[in-house]
Amino acid sequence: MLQTSTHHHFPPQLLLHLPLCRRTLMLSAHRRPLLRHQSCTHIRLRVSSCTKSSSKNTVTELVNAVDGQKYNEKQQQQVKRPYPFHEIEPKWQHYWEENKTFRTPDEIDTSKPKFYVLDMFPYPSGAGLHVGHPLGYTATDILARFKRMQGFNVLHPMGWDAFGLPAEQYAIETGTHPKITTFRNISRFRSQLKSLGFSYDWDREISTTEPDYYKWTQWIFLQLMKRGLAYQAEVPVNWCPALGTVLANEEVVDGVSERGGHPVIRKPMRQWMLRITAYADRLLEDLDDLDWPESIKEMQRNWIGRSEGAELDFVVINGNGQVEEKRIRVYTTRPDTIFGATYLVLAPEHPILSSVLSEAQSKHVEEYRELAIRKSDLERTELQKEKTGVFTGCYARNPANGQAIPIWVADYVLGSYGTGAIMAVPAHDTRDYEFAMKYSIPISWVVKPDGGDCGNFERPYSGEGTMINASSSESGLDINGLPSKEAASKVIQWLEKSGNGKQKVNYKLRDWLFARQRYWGEPIPVIFLDDTGEGIPVSETELPLTLPELDDFTPTGTGEPPLSKADSWVITKDPLSGKAARRETNTMPQWAGSCWYYLRFMDPKNSSALVDKAKEQYWSPVDVYVGGAEHAVLHLLYARFWHKVLYDIGVVSTKEPFKCVINQGIILGEVQYTACKDDKGNFISADSVAELAEYNQEKIPEEKVMKSGDFFVLKDNPNVRLIARAHKMSKSRGNVINPDDVVLEYGADSLRLYEMFMGPLRDSKTWNTSGIEGVHRFLARSWRLIVGSPSPAGLYPDGTSTVDEKPSIEQLRSLHRCIEKVTEEIEGTRFNTGISAMMEFINAAYKWDKLPRSIIEAFVLLLSPYAPHMAEELWSRLGHSNSLAYEPFPKADAAYLKESTVVLPVQINGKTRGTIQVEETCTEEEAFRLASLDTKVSKFLDGKSIRKRIYVQGKILNIVIDAQKKVKVAQ
């Protein structure tokens, strides 16, 4: 039970999140938590260990016992804080939640400009957030708050990409249903995000695991089926026996699964595919108009990999030298080099391979194939690796010159790219050259570099030039002496005329493998008739097709997905014919739900449509989309593909989903210092070590390290240089920083400011806990400047120390320079320099005798997107009853931005003795007064009689003195 003072009702909706919020609660037997909100009710919680429930898990199950002892104010006062963030932050988080401050209404004034700012929504893992996560979230929150204050309708939502393998693996290991794990993880993530003061519209929260959401994921799949964009095919896949599922290429690292490190093999399986290749040209062309980092656009261009060339056929020749009906089709971007093709290479998975094997080579080829299927595509195509292959024992005829050339099988050729076969031209391709040299295959030079010597080839030449050794009377093709491009065109014409091939545009992009042998994913809405095997889409009126409850999530071991165990769910009937049928037991990949979630945020409660047309037309496209660079290709490419399909069928009104994409840099763990030691335990300077692996290494605590020039050395022995490295945060390295701990010690506003102050948003940065103290001091100085100093007991006065007086010109200039800089830097996402501008303002304000209220109110509004909790509290203390979230953001007045001071030379009897800084409109009396106070000038005036003063405003002050007569100068 939770006990509070009887005069204040503690809101139950806040209680839901309390157990998971270490920012306000410390779930530790050694500490006591504090929560304050609005009336500063003090609540003391004691949490006992949680019992495991066999029924539904809820957030409240995490709290089994709470005692309501009164808070000891005297004990709390012993904790000295630079400012009372521990009271301010829970108070305003509660206020925002109670008042739904950041809710974007369903019905809005569409005459106002809109701003849709979106984070790449997270996968809610059990580990919760680390300090790297809030980097992008803080940036989008600053933008959202800034645009609200500028009068925009702002859409700033948050949700969860919650289907996927991690939850399923955890379920297998622990016996906990993935739904329970996912719910618990979401609750933890949500509470952590709320503790950081992000201005999300939580009424729009979505999860990809909710049937009301994945109903529309399934609906999109049905639209893809209708248009022939979803189909089934037998394809080689990454099969992980231990996980019992197909893995995407990006989930396989060095031949093992990314999760668990289990061996992965290649094997053919019938799978659902999405025909993304049908949109390859549009995906490529529309990149040009996007405000995305050029590096991301180039990565997508390379992934799509459009190339122009030719497809041509090589006729197979059997062991007796007879031509067979079999043909091997290859794709090449260099048809001009056809005369240089001295062998063919088939991928190990090529369907024709078994039929072009000689009896003598059959065993060797099969053994090679077995080895090849255990390698990932990345391993097989790695440029640095030694090329391997096996001769098939058969030949093919080069259509250009009629020569018989050997057919090899090699794993550096992929069945998933092009035709799964290549014509190898070792004279003009590095990989082919290495292979030919290794296996003593002939090399025929057919391209001479312009200006080069055609008789002195020692290494492959892959560039263009002039054709040589490239004619045949038998085929009638002669391209000798032609430039490469002209020769390529002539070869294509000859291929098409002779029936040996045709011009072809090809792509590296492959159709999207869209099936997973998992339980925890969206069911694919298709049934298969028992008698014919025909696939029939589920009626749209029957959606959502929900997941059945399963107790056993383990892999079947046969390749059948876990859903196949749910017999009562799998066995069904075709509603139209009444025939027996079975449901599809594969599920969709995790990518599915994240392809279109940005649309659902526009209209999350709509039960009759994916998104309302009018709302979509107003909010589309997403104005700013922020996330990690690891999603630069696949997620963004898949989302763009689905969006274009939805555009074609009239669901969306824009060709592209994301107008501007920003990749925030990663935050590395704190720098770790390592010293090298020899076998005797003596320290060795790192600059004298050739191979680190040959020496023992010892971690050195930071307090034993000092900087020497550009390097770090041991304090006790500066001759020993250390290795200083910052690594990506991971549990295995023990360098993960929990934001809850940072917030507990410094407050959420300090964490937000520090992450923005570390450096440019797009750059990678190294975490340094001591660095947060600088921005924490800035906030404390701002608080003390505006509120006043605390009493000896640590209590701050009510209200503020501002005065209702007209500000001086100097104060207005200082403010408006700050306004201009902060505005420019927010708009340019240069948040670190915006913070610097506010620090400069506070430094200037500390020199003022008085703080005009109008100046401080404007500064508080500038601070609010960065440090919203403190800003709200200061705004309240300044006499305002409402949140500042929708107050107009200050605008810089150009009149105060001009540099209105000049450096005025001061002369004594025509000789310059010094300069003074004065206003352009400074009077003669004021100029003389300032000059007589200047130490360089005053010594020439001391005791002298002034005959006259010559003053040209803004130009010069000349004081003429009588050198003989001494009088006391009036100051």
Short account of what is shown:
Residues 301-496 form the Leucyl-tRNA synthetase editing domain. The protein is α+β, with helices and mostly antiparallel strands and 971 residues long. The chain contains 27 helices and 39 strands.
Written account of the structure:
- The protein has 971 residues and is an alpha+beta fold.
- Among the domains are: 218-302 and 511-590, HUPs (Rossmann fold, 3-Layer(aba) Sandwich), CATH 3.40.50.620; 306-507, Valyl/Leucyl/Isoleucyl-tRNA synthetase, editing domain (Isoleucyl-tRNA Synthetase, domain 2, Alpha-Beta Complex), CATH 3.90.740.10; 669-727, no CATH class; 784-878, Isoleucyl-tRNA Synthetase, Domain 1, CATH 1.10.730; 901-961, Ubiquitin-like (UB roll) (Roll).
- 29% of the residues lie in helices and 19% in strands.
- It is built from 27 helices and 39 strands.
- Strands 10, 11, 12, 13, 14, 15 and 20 form a seven-stranded mixed beta sheet that branches.
- A hairpin with a 2-residue loop joins strand 32 and strand 33.
- The longest helix has 19 residues, at 809-827.
- The radius of gyration is 36 Å and the shape is globular.
- It starts with 11 loop residues before the first helix and ends in a 5-residue tail after the last strand.
- Mean pLDDT is 86; it is low at 1-78.
- It is an enzyme of class 6 (ligase).
- Keywords: Aminoacyl-tRNA synthetase, ATP-binding, Ligase, Nucleotide-binding, Protein biosynthesis.
- This is leucine--tRNA ligase.
Q: What features would you highlight for this structure?
A:
971 residues, alpha+beta, Rossmann fold, Isoleucyl-tRNA Synthetase, domain 2, 4-stranded parallel sheet, 27 helices, 39 strands, disordered N terminus
